Here is the input.
Amino acid sequence: MAHDSAAVYLRSIKEPETFWAQAAEDLHWERKWQRVLDDTHKPLYRWFTGGLFNTCYNALDRHIENGRGEQAALIYDSPVTGTFKTYTYRELRGEVACFAGALKRQGIDRSDRVIIYMPMVPETVIAMLACARIGAVHSVVFGGFAANELAKRINDAEPKLVVSTSCGIEPGKVVHYKPLLDEAINIATTKPARCIILQRPQAHATMIKGRDIDWHDALEDAQPADCVPVASTDPLYILYTSGSTGFPKGVVRDNGGHAVALKWSMKHVYGMEPGDVYWAASDVGWVVGHSYIVYGPLLHGCTTILYEGKPVGTPDPGAFWRVCSQHDVRVLFTAPTAFRAIKREDPQGDYIKKYDLSGFRALFLAGERCDPDTLQWAEQRLGVPVIDHWWQTETGWAIAANCLGIERLPVKPGSATRPVPGYKVQVLDEAGHTVANNKIGSIAIKLPLPPGSLTTMWKNDQGYKKYYLDPYPGYYLTGDAGYMDEDGYLWIMSRTDDIINVAGHRLSTGAIEEVLASHPDVAECAVIGAADELKGQLPVGLIVLKAGVDRPHADIVADVVRNVRETVGPVAAFKQAVVVKRLPKTRSGKILRGTMKRIADAAEYQIPPTIDDPAILDEITEALGQLGYGRHER
Ligand code: COA
Ligand code: AMP
Here is the structure.
């Protein structure tokens, strides 16, 4: 039945408690909530307080009890290892319950933290769901981060146990995870008591006696564990994401509200029915992987795909279409950068024609703004709706989208369409007033955020308030800038902070700057995100050397590039830096990163009135020109 999206949206804003209570009825509650929305600790809100809930029960057991036991729950498709494996709901529950038993045997209990530093293998999903089953709190760390970043997360989450592996597989290379884990634990001030290590055939990890246990040994004789009902408001997971400082923010997700929002979104945002096959081609280390590889599809009784491969090169730009056709995927969700990579290698879309995509209904894109060219290319080649939708780690699901399960609205390439039910989005000026249509401003969401969004930062309510709530009282600050047009469509244009988006991966320039600044020859530095055709943005470093340093600049640049790879990780894709004599600053000493970015992108810019010496901008233009950025003159 078609619905009027404006009416559904209005109902969600006017009667949020009725709206979400109705959605919550689709799930199993061990004990029903007492309050749908608890505002007793404003501006911190809680959903479904008093309720007892288990996310794993709702993602697995509930479906088995309702006759879906033999349906595929998870399809592992790994072109990099040549492996396929399907788990039915019954099989997946069996594996999860046993691993949950293994965790319990290692002393993991309700609300203990478990860090999962793993690649795209089924054991990662099993470990996440096993934590959820016994009420433990997982924190998955993306495999492309290096030891230092992992150590920061260990220190903050204080896990009792880490689940990891011998290696991940990237095209053409084996990435050894275990040495990185050992180094991280070495650096960390909090030490986990145990590590469970999955030995993959591609590499053997050296085990540390007394601390490390082989995955299979941990499972031996483990008794399957039952689901432990937890408070709806208890944390399900912590997911660290880049903030404007070098220290990541620990986004906390609850159990009940999260499940309600994700299940609702599967039907209403993506138009999925239980039994359909859904594929998020992302990584479990990112929020997209948490929400739409693991929890969303399983909560909705869909089949989810865990793909260990790339959009191109594994083996060719037809990889996505092979997967869609082979597994009868209804909806694919990925990042625009993946499509730019495919488009570059298959401009005519010849590989698309090789596969039967008759069951394919829609492509959703997020992670960065989708440039209209890429969107239109995909639309024309695929002949299905291509939907750019906007969200962030903090919200856990879409803030703005074209909700296919409610009413398909016309697509405006470059816009993420309209706010999704539950999100009261407003564009504000510096004083906190709503700006007129088509006027750019800071995008904020009026509190309370809907279920599923972050409830706070891990052990840091003050930080949550300071970064997100204090700037505009009564609102949550998204950190994005953009505008709303006369049709209520949102146009997300840029970040208002120092976060950059590299191949759909969110990175903090502050974290990279910290590494550059720690080089003994570097006096000061700045990192900017320069526009890149494939990855959206690439980090570029500008460094000023200490007086008297006479080493060749190329050596220093090579040092800092290596240091970033080793400290932040290869995912930062930091490969370019240039030595400059000085950095442009305001008279109060603030580095003008925004102006340097505009120079790199050859965009028009105004000389900031507060700049201490405008001549520096010519030097910066020259230096960035050496790296191939900008247009060499102003
Ligand atoms: N473990 C270890 N290393 C990893 C890794 C992981 N899980 N993921 C990426 N890396 C490494 C890569 O091997 C690469 O290393 P290199 O510098 O030695 O080549 C580096 O990190 C950068 O990786 P990536 O960003 O994947 O770039 P790429 O050049 O290998 O591939 C794309 C480019 C566009 C194909 C790729 O970025 C892509 O598929 N992006 C989709 C992003 C996405 O899904 N984002 C999630 C939000 S929806
Ligand atoms: P992450 O938390 O890693 O998911 O990154 C979230 C950020 O990515 C957002 O705050 C935006 O800056 C950007 N982003 C994600 N999706 C979109 C989109 N569809 N359009 C524009 N920017 C996006």
About this structure: The chain has 19 helices and 32 strands. The domain at 503-626 is CATH 3.30.300.30 (GMP Synthetase; Chain A, domain 3). The first helix runs from residue 5 to 14. The longest strand covers residues 522-532.
